[in-house]
Amino acid sequence: MKTEPPDSEGAFTGWTTRRWLRAGVAATLVVLAVLGSLGGWAMWRTSQITDELVSRRSPALIDAMRVEEALVNQETGVRGYGLSGRADFLQPYARGVTDEKAALRHLRPLVEDDPRARADLDRVEKLAATWQQRIARPVSAASAGDAVRLAADRATEGKTTFDSLRRAMKRQQDRLQSERARATHDLGRAQSLRNWVFAVIALVIVLVAVLVFEGLRRGVTGPLGRLGAAARDVAQGRFDRSLAVDGPADLRRLASDVEAMRRRLVRELQFSEESRGLLDEQAEDLRRSNAELEQFAYVASHDLQEPLRKISSFTQLLQRRYGGQLDARADQYIAFAVDGANRMQVLINDLLTFSRVGRVHNDHRSVDLEQVLRGTLDDLSVSVEDSAAEITHDALPTVVGDATQLGMLWQNLLSNAIKFRSPDRTPRVHVTAVRDGDRWDFAVADNGIGIAPEFQEKVFVLFQRLHTKDAYPGTGIGLAMCKKVVEFHGGRIGIDPDYTEGTRVLFTLPATGSGTGSGTESAERETQP
Fold first, then answer.
1. C-alpha 484 chain-centroid distance
2. Among 279, 328, 356, 447, which residue is least crowded by beta carbons within 10 Å?
3. CA distance 488 to 426
4. How many CB atoms lie within 10 A of CB 109?
């Protein structure tokens, strides 16, 4: 049974960017470590050979030449003294002895580790000692006459011995010169090797840098760039652009996640298009409904009110002409008919007004609420005077809205505060306005009969009444109209549940500036009927 070899390319497909970076960094460090070791070895080898040449080979050759020079000076002095008997020829001899000892003292440690050089030095020292024992010291120690005679007797022996010494020193110097030349050659080779090693190191470093940059481009920056370009295309509206990219496993997973997000966006976009289609249909239905509502308003204001006015007029005429001529039950029936016709007419007018909010009156501009409130109080002056109500207010701002609708808002809120007053105390109404960021918070507080907590939401529903028409007249449409006006202007309205001294209606309107409508007037002012 054959076993398929592992696919080396497939083995790396699961590697993430971090794993690739770790592997790349580890391989780079290994290569740099090997190259650093080679460079260090080349430097050490060059330094070792240089030290051997400078510290051993060259000084050894120089000291050997100094030994030869010292022995030649000795031979010259002894020979001159032996020929002439003059004592001044012994000065070079004495100086040569001293120089010989110094040179040998320096030379011995330098050749200690070299057996051949040490053997050469031993032979030179042996021959020098023989010459000095047989020739130099006896001649230099004798008197002038004895020295001449002794030098003549041993001239042949001295020449033969010193020639042997010269040959030994020549061999020593030749060997040291050869060793020095070999060390110089080794130094040159080591320097060349060092230069080549560092050149290879520089080349490998450049190659590693190129491989690293190319690997980053192919494995990281390239896939990221393609993914970013595809993502920008999708962001610009090309939702059909696929986001599949190659590269490390984590980048492929990222591309897969972004692709999944793109597909979800496509689905959401399709759903949004379908929803927009439905909204367009609903908007068309709404426009048709509004048109029908406008037609109804027209019918209510013309066709329905005309027969209703006839009914009301004839019942009132019947009441005036035959009132008191019929029995009490007939008078009661006629009164019921007149009252019903009047209430029906008021109800139709209120419905017509409610339907026109946001439709007929929609002239948004800067509205001074101070001025609107003063106009409303003028309209309510009779009710204010009859009830002896005290109406005060803070400085009111200027807002953007429809003056007619805002006047209806003030009229309904203030008329309700006066209508639902407590019978055992003077009605007091106070209007406040406080800026809160980008909105104005208004409150209309009274000391009337109040609204029970369970009815505080219900009162804003159309035609919802909490009392009978005999106790408090009205159609139950006032607060519903207030809610529609406030919401049409982008605000909210409600009853303050924590206020227990009567009723406090809270509502908000968007703020358009930092000032109030009447900055020169006092912060709180009282309006007299």
1. 46
2. 328
3. 34
4. 12
- Supply 418's token pair: 């006066």
DSSP 262-309: HHHHHHHHHHHHHHHHHHHHHHHHHHHHHHHHHHHHHIIIIITHHHHH
Which residues are 392's β-sheet partners? Answer: 430, 526
Stated as kind and residue range, the H or E segment containing 486 is: helix 478-488
Single-letter residue type at 521: E
CB contact set of 35 (below 8 Å; sequence gap of 6+): 200, 201, 204, 205
- Adjacent-strand bridge partners of 401: 365
Tell me the pLDDT of the chain (529 aa) as tens digits: 444 444 444 556 677 777 777 777 888 888 888 888 888 988 888 888 888 888 888 898 898 899 889 889 988 888 888 888 888 888 888 898 899 889 889 988 988 888 888 888 889 889 999 998 988 888 888 888 888 888 888 888 888 988 898 998 899 889 888 888 888 888 888 888 888 888 888 888 888 888 877 777 776 777 777 777 777 777 777 767 776 667 677 767 777 777 777 778 778 877 888 888 888 888 888 777 766 666 666 566 556 666 767 677 777 777 777 666 767 777 666 766 766 666 566 556 655 655 555 555 556 788 888 888 888 888 888 888 888 888 899 888 988 888 888 888 888 888 888 877 878 888 888 999 998 888 899 999 888 877 777 766 777 776 666 655 555 665 667 777 788 888 888 888 888 888 888 888 889 999 875 444 433 333 334 443 3
Q: Helix crossing, 58-84 with 144-153: angle to 10°?
A: 110
Buried b (16+ CB within 10 A) or exposed e, 12-32: eeebebeebbeebeeeeeebe
Cα 392 to chain centroid, rounded: 55
- Residue (of 219, 244, 220) closest to 231 by Cα position: 244
Q: How far apart are CA 445 and CA 429, in angstroms?
A: 6
Using only C-alpha atoms, what is the Rg of the chain? 62
Strand, helix or coil for residue 155: helix
* 526 bridge partner residues: 392
The residue among 36, 381, 344, 353 whose CA lies nearest residue 197 is 36
The two tokens of residue 163 are: 């020639």
The SS3 call for residue 151 is helix
Residue 481: its H or E element? helix 478-488
Give the number of residues written for the chain. 529
**pTM strictly above 0.85:** no
- Two tokens at 267? 């689905």
Task: Check: CB of residue 448 under 8 Å from CB of residue 427.
Answer: yes
Half-sphere exposure of 408 (CA within 13 A, CB side): 22
Pairing of strands 439-446, 503-510: antiparallel
**What DSSP designation does 247 have?**
S
Question: b/e string for 260-279 if b means 16 or more Cβ within 10 A?
Answer: eebeeeeeeeeeeeeeeeee
